[in-house]
Amino acid sequence: MKxxxxxxxxxxxxxxxxTTVSTAFADVERRFETGTCGDGSAWWTLTHYENxxxxxxxxxxxxxxxxxxxxxxxYVTIDPGVGLIPTxxxxxxxxxxxxxxFSIIRYNMDHRxxxxxxxxCTGNYWLATSFEGAEVGGQLD
Amino acid sequence: xxxxxxxxxIAFLLLACVxxxxxxxxxxxxxxxxxxGEDWWCVVRYEDGIPTYATGVSCSGYKYYTPxxxxxxxxxxxxxxxxxxxxxxxSAAAPGGWSSVIRYDDNNKPSxxxxxxxxxxxxxxxxxxxxxxxxxE
Lengths: 141, 137
Hints:
The complex is a heterodimer of chains A (141) and B (137). With 141 residues, chain A is an alpha+beta fold. Chain A has one helix at residues 3-25; strands spanning 28-36, 42-50, 53-60, 66-76, 88-91, 100-107, 113-119, 125-135. Chain A contains one helix and eight strands. Chain A is elongated. With 137 residues, chain B is mainly beta. In chain B, strand 8 and strand 9 form a beta hairpin. Chain B has one helix and nine strands; from the N terminus they run H-E-E-E-E-E-E-E-E-E.
């Protein structure tokens, strides 16, 4: 085997190992919530977390519209949710960092998430900076 | 003394009010582990105890959106089975509330459902056909 092929092979092997390790240690959890809207209809959200970081929020809002939001986070140095009651909590499986994660969610009038903050399994505080995504279909009524 | 036409109009309005009371919508969530170690999850929407759609991710990793149509049956199709989902009813026809039993296929996607609605009737789901709809593939 030629030297450059060997290095390519080793590189691919290393990349595969890193991918496997990071996939294996991503602790995926979901939290479901539902409630009644002001007009008597119902809303629901399912928030997907990976190691305490929200990666997807899907659900149906008070207008009956289904949505899928991909929150983007920025790390912050001070706990942005200090004094607030966590909406979701969980245990961290990996060694080091924090033993638990938490997340606070604030919703808009239609009960779509509009503000999120929390602490992930590395022990870092995060704040959602945007909610990418939109409605994923038509009315569900 | 009220005119008969006025009495009729009032009676009509009262009936209209009774029959336009909105159905109570509720959602129920179930999740579990697949043999592969992955997770499956399922959200079912109920209106007065009758399922109207199910959405979730099965063990195949496939996201589904399934509108559910049902049929009223004369005999309780879930007698002796533990309900997967339950809820309260405001009507006297089902004092114990509504209930629903779900059976899943090998990929943990709903494949059979039966239960009792808030009007006291028994139902079974007759169609689990997926559609390319909101949140589905």
